[in-house]
Amino acid sequence: MAIDDRNRPLYMISIAAELAGVHPQTLRSYEQKGLVTPRRTSGNTRMYSQADIERLNLINELTSEGINLAGVTRILDLQSRLDDREAEVEDLHARVRRLAERVRELENRTTVGAIVHVTPTRRLP
Asked: Which pTM value belongs to this model?
């Protein structure tokens, strides 16, 4: 499933609650606490994506391990920051690869240029 597909709002609150194994009021509470942010339709209906369902499952897993919602909030924030740093590192690796390619191109040009300038030209009689 593509990233955009994972974030597409698909489920109304009753279905999302069922998929996540919680009561719809729990989802409203999580939204108030900022743990999940469903999209809203023009009629103000909450719509949850597959990514939201996965996040809700993670919240359930953490709370079932005894972590309170403040701890869950902190964990999710740290995970988000880690994901951002990983994306930055991937971008930097791509930049380094492009720069290394460019350096190789310039070195090849320099080598070819040196050969061309060093090679004596023949004069015709």
From this structure: 0.70
